Amino acid sequence: MTSTNPVPSGPGASYAAAGVDIEAGDRAVTLMKEWVKKARRPESIGALGGFAGLFDASALKRYERPLLASATDGVGTKVAVAQKMDVHDTIGHDLVAMVVDDLVVCGAEPLFMTDYICVGKVVPERVSAIVKGIAEGCVLAGCALVGGETAEHPGLLGPDEYDVAGAGTGVVEADAILGADRIRAGDAVVAMGSSGLHSNGYSLVRHVFLERAGWSLDRHVAEFGRTLGEELLEPTKIYSLDCLALARTTEVHAFSHITGGGLANNLARVVPDGLHATVDRSTWSPGAVFRAVGELGRVERAELERTLNMGVGMVAVVPPESVEETLALLGGRGVDAWVAGEITERGDHAEAAALTGDHPN
């Protein structure tokens, strides 16, 4: 074959010359192995490095009618904060929280997760730190990390840029599914405190702090008791084992994971037609970071509440007779919890969920 195009001189093209370092990828796998080993369950089969993660499904034989639940999520622009701070061992924790706490809403026990890490350049120590966070999150959630993928995309992402995503699978007995079908008028809405911003609303948060206010991530903020960056990287609280313990101990009708969309919108997702959830703001005071976003950005309350969790990361809807036991169990597990509202009959034109009152100063 002949060509009229001149052939460039010099060494031939290679994957490495194009920006993909296979040896660095292999070293990343070696470094992450010790962390993945910590995130195992008895049902985990095989070791890191296979083409697929394996999980012994015979463990499901103890269920009468096991239903598998699946969820997938990412961490969003919170990764931009981690990249600027060069702190990468908490983002994985956030990833697990976003996935497993969606699974537990229907009453499912998280069984296993897989992850996907996309990087502009494989830096083995950085990838290992991300996986470390994922593995530690899986331990806190009681699930196994059975596999994942690290992809190097030079030209698409900068050398220090990356994104993460994950998928999880859980199981719940068919007749134990929690949700709207169980909720009744008179049920109590029990709020569980968040650890901070969690992993939603960071486009707004970064815009307010870094662009409008011009704050640096290493700025010490007295109201936070630490630097801005440390506050923004506070890991998302993982509630899955607390919720499962609650469902196994007392009667629970539904859970709602408070993520993007805020408290009212996420609670509305589990409220059935004909009923209305009212949450009283005066029952808690959001943390300083929420107040700072609102004040520095001059953000209207409605915008704050549909973007951020405002201090509530998970909600349990329980019958009145379960309230005392619910609060005692959660308190004993170190979860800040309180009765924040109730379920009532819905009047004409009423929303499925609404917030009333004002937060205490």
Automatic annotation (TrEMBL):
EC main group: ligase
Pathway of action: Purine metabolism; IMP biosynthesis via de novo pathway; 5-amino-1-(5-phospho-D-ribosyl)imidazole from N(2)-formyl-N(1)-(5-phospho-D-ribosyl)glycinamide: step 2/2
Catalytic activity from the UniProt record: 2-formamido-N(1)-(5-O-phospho-beta-D-ribosyl)acetamidine + ATP = 5-amino-1-(5-phospho-beta-D-ribosyl)imidazole + ADP + phosphate + H(+)
Annotated coiled-coil segments of the chain: none
Molecular function via GO: ATP binding; phosphoribosylamine-glycine ligase activity; phosphoribosylformylglycinamidine cyclo-ligase activity
Tree of life domain: Bacteria
Domain PurM-like N-terminal: start-end pairs: 64-172
Keywords for the protein's UniProt record, in alphabetical order: ATP-binding, Cytoplasm, Ligase, Nucleotide-binding, Purine biosynthesis
Database matches in Gene3D superfamilies: PurM-like C-terminal domain, PurM-like, N-terminal domain
Biological process (GO), any one: adenine biosynthetic process
PANTHER family: TRIFUNCTIONAL PURINE BIOSYNTHETIC PROTEIN ADENOSINE-3 (PTHR10520:SF12), TRIFUNCTIONAL PURINE BIOSYNTHETIC PROTEIN ADENOSINE-3-RELATED (PTHR10520)
Family: Belongs to the AIR synthase family.
UniProt-recorded name of the protein: Phosphoribosylformylglycinamidine cyclo-ligase
Gene name per UniProt: purM
